[in-house]
Design goal:
13-stranded mixed sheet; Rossmann fold; eight-stranded mixed sheet; alpha+beta; 747 residues; single chain
Length: 747
């Protein structure tokens, strides 16, 4: 019996084992079959899905700013490239209205990769890229714009590093909760990540260039160098660390690309060695020793030598040079800050503090929390551009009703239909039924009166207010222009907005203008101030012109736009100014190089200003003698006066909406006017306008006003409204010009 029992147990075990193996084998076959089917289906879907041929990248190094020009790089596959006729990017503007950026494709140019400049008005706004063939969308991709990953506030400083950051990010300080930093750093370490258009650098406060990676530097195309050069010439800031120079080339050159050499202040001769860097240690006030390092030998032809060192053979080597490049301010270090000596130096960030200080507010570097004062501003803005928007919103013939007037009107209506109606109908006439007629007639009369008053203070026409700043660089004869324009409409309508230069064919790029902060209409606001407004398009051409098409303007409201352009100009004759040694003052001949009169001109140089005649005609020569006594810039910018033996500064009113000329002057030289300490406002949204750093260079700035606009905004309406002969008037049009004039050093 025991034997039979064991035999039966063995048979049962064998049967179970056989069944399990069979089930496992069948399951494996089924699983394998399912995997093959799913893989086949996935492959079919992947081949059929056209978005696999569409690749989208947003920002510089994956970073972008709210309300600033943001590059969107769109790469098309071969199949999409053959079909596509247009690429569009859909997002929202600063008012929360949907805007569609459209860029047509030219098939004859084989455009496989496009760079579309857009602006995003909300941190969580949708960003949808579409490839269009005729009227059909052949590919579509949605890009996540999370504020925690890539979107920066519109006023947060951004430093873009090319090649290497060289430790500049060590200056940034994180907030207490770690959610934000005082400034951000974007690294571009491949040639393909550099933009081809200067507008794509508009979000930058500073560009840092390291020449250590020679392969990267030589891979940058001429078009990319031209974009960088144009941005600096417009007033941008740049720090160049000239390391890795090799003077062993067969042709005797140093092996650097010519566009980079054109950006330097002089000729590169070779390489030296610094064994005693005590001067650098004393510069940043540190006891931490700095090891010996290599230095590039330069023969400066312009600029101010800030620090000189002595190499191993006793030569005096210019190591830190600051100079003007167009309207921009550049600082050159003749060594690489990511070399072994500086990379291992614990106090390298102290040197970066000195380098970054001209471009970034001291309050930012010190990590002070300013959110409370910024967000609680009773004006609704805390940046100078906010006051500019408020000033351009004042139109002649258009009366603004204050909250107090509105409240008084409502209280008056309530008094009429309430106590007065009771006294008349019940107490005086003793007929309560009359109250219905009295109150109804009173309300109808009030409505008719308010309607009449509304149409009298808000005319049914289009009015334009414009402000322009024109920068002219005499050595390069380049012109860089900016305009801000507000378009007012008496009733709700749709219009097409464009801009043209009055004296040239320079392409002008138009876009919507944002407002920093969390106030009403601000870029960080959670409210859509123009909810219900129709979507519109911005058409971008290959000539870098852009037009706002079918943009909606609310009734008795405005649309804020901004325009930029670049042009060239034949400037003859030219000024001849020299610096008087020891006093940083000027002498020589000053000439108006324009073909129009320069009104209210003022000459600025090294903290001084020279009062000139009220009008300088074209080609007119003004002599500045050695005994011409200039005055301190603060007397001009801060309106400082001497009364009864003491100096008095005229305070600036951030709520003033009528002094637009004075406001533009402060935007042009904000730091020189003591910055926020004087204006109580920041200047971070468009800091490139502030060219106070030019006061430290060998450039004199001639500032004056022009009678006629350099560029004009044009409005096109539909046929029905155009047939009515709708009145279009230009109210304010203030144009200021800054001319950068080189100053020679007198021997």
């Amino acid at each position: 019996m025991a034997y039979l029992t064991r035999a039966s147990q063995l048979d049962a075990t064998c049967i179970r084992s056989f069944l399990m193996r069979s089930l496992v084998s069948a399951g494996a076959r089924v699983s394998l079959l399912l995997c093959v089917v799913l893989s086949w289906q996935t492959q079919i879907i992947a081949q059929a899905d056209p978005t696999d041929a569409l690749r989208v990248e947003v920002g510089l190094g994956g970073i972008w700013k709210l309300g600033h020009v943001t590059p969107v790089s769109v790469s098309l596959g071969a199949e999409l490239q053959e079909k596509a006729t247009e690429v569009s990017v859909t997002t929202v503007d600063g008012d929360g209205v949907e805007v569609n950026y459209r860029r047509p494709l030219d098939r004859s140019q084989n455009q496989r990769q496009l760079h579309i400049p857009i602006r995003v008005g909300r941190a969580s706004a949708p960003l949808i890229v579409r490839v269009i063939a005729g009227d059909e969308v052949v590919a579509e991709q949605s890009v996540q714009t999370s504020p925690a990953t890539s979107a920066l506030p519109s006023d947060q400083p951004l430093i873009v590093a090319i090649g290497s950051t060289m430790g500049v990010e060590q200056l940034s300080r994180a907030s207490v909760d770690g959610s934000s930093e005082t400034f951000s750093t974007a690294l571009l370490d491949t040639a393909g990540s550099l933009p081809n258009d200067w507008r794509h650098y508009s979000m930058c406060d500073l560009i840092v260039i390291s020449t250590t990676d020679r392969a990267l530097i030589n891979q940058i195309s001429a078009e990319q160098w031209a974009a960088l050069d144009s941005w600096v010439r417009r007033g941008g800031g740049c720090v160049i660390a000239l390391g890795g120079v090799d003077n062993s080339q067969a042709d005797g050159s140093v092996g650097l690309p010519q566009p980079l050499l054109d950006l330097l202040p002089g000729r590169v001769l070779g390489v030296g060695r610094i064994l005693n860097p005590g001067t650098v240690e004393s510069l940043v006030s540190t006891d931490e020793p700095l090891q010996p390092f290599d230095v590039s030998l330069l023969e400066p032809g312009r600029g101010q030598v800030e620090v000189s060192l002595t190499d191993t053979v006793g030569r005096t080597v210019p190591w830190w040079i600051s100079y003007a490049h167009g309207h921009g301010f550049v600082q050159l270090l003749a060594s690489s800050l990511d070399g072994p000596a500086f990379a291992d130096w614990k106090d390298r960030k102290l040197l970066w503090e000195r380098l970054v200080d001209p471009y970034v507010d001291r309050e930012v570097l010190e990590g002070k929390n300013e959110n409370a004062s910024r967000d609680s501003s009773y004006l609704g803005y805390s940046d100078l551009v906010g006051q500019l928007r408020a000033s351009l919103d004042v139109f002649s013939g258009v009366t603004v009703i204050s909250f107090g007037q509105l409240a008084a009107t409502l209280i008056g209506i309530l008094l009429v239909v309430g106590p007065i109606d009771y006294l008349v109908s019940v107490r005086w006439l003793r007929r309560p039924q009359v109250s219905w007629y009295f109150a109804g007639f009173s309300l109808l009369l009030a409505c008719a009166g308010l309607a009449w008053y509304y149409h009298s203070i808000r005319p049914d026409q289009l009015i334009i207010n414009t402000a322009q700043i024109i920068d002219i660089d005499v050595p390069s004869q380049r012109v860089n222009g900016r305009l801000w324009s507000h378009v007012y409409s008496g009733k709700a309508r749709r219009a097409t907005l464009s801009a043209t230069a009055t004296n040239s064919d320079a392409p002008i790029c138009l876009d919507w203008q944002g407002l920093p902060g969390r106030g009403l209409g601000g870029l960080l606001s959670q409210l859509n101030t123009d909810r219900g407004m129709p979507a519109y398009s911005i058409s971008i051409s290959d000539q870098n012109t852009s037009t706002l098409e079918n943009v909606g303007i609310p009734a008795a409201g405005t649309k804020c736009i901004v325009g930029t352009w670049t042009d060239s100009l034949d400037l003859n004759p030219q000024s001849r100014l020299v610096e008087i040694p020891g006093v940083n003052q000027l002498a020589g001949e000053l000439v108006n190089p324009l073909d129009v009169d320069l009104l209210e001109p003022t000459l600025f140089y090294h903290g001084w200003f020279y009062s000139l005649n009220s009008r300088i005609q074209p080609g007119e020569l003004v002599t500045i003698a050695y005994d011409t006594i200039p005055r301190d810039m603060s007397r001009r910018l801060n309106r400082r006066r001497t009364l009864e033996g003491s100096d008095t500064v005229t305070p600036w009113d951030p709520s003033d909406r009528l002094s637009i000329d004075r406001l533009l002057e402060l935007m042009m030289f904000h730091r020189a006017a003591s910055g926020r300490a004087y204006t109580s406002l920041f200047h971070r949204y468009q800091p490139i306008l502030d060219q106070s750093n030019m006061m430290r260079t060998d450039r004199a700035i001639l500032v004056g006003r022009l009678e006629k606009p350099w560029a004009a905004v044009e409005i096109s309406l539909n046929e029905a409204e155009a047939a009515k002969g709708l009145a279009l008037s230009q109210d304010k049009d203030r144009v200021w010009c800054r001319i950068a004039i080189p100053v020679a050093k007198e021997e």
